[in-house]
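Below is a concrete protein record.
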Amino acid sequence: MKKNILLILAILLAGCANKTTSLGECTFEVEEARSYTELTEGLSGRKTLSEDNGMLFFMPYEIKKGDATGFHMRGMQFDLDLLFFDKHGVLTEIQTVPRCESEDCPYYQPEKAARFVLEIQNGRAEACQIELGEKINSLQ
């Protein structure tokens, strides 16, 4: 009985584990957003985001400027850096975006097609010296 409980607990904890990824001079613990709810909710409603945390969005298809899909800051309590990665996981663009306090929030889209997007604390991309062309390592 005790072994079964420990096994169930280990399985549950493994499912909750965040992944880490290193970019520039920093390592981030990232939550993954894969489901429709996770993709649409993102970090909205959270009060803070620590400097070594982020959320990695696995988009169901590539997004780019002019598409109907993008990122908005409605419901955000803090500004973010958006890091856009192509389908190979190569960083193609970094945008610093402010929180939006109105109902009419702009959408942010990359210039080039992106398949993955990492949201991190505002200013961290510069502080960590993250550069275009880097490859993200958390795409399993």
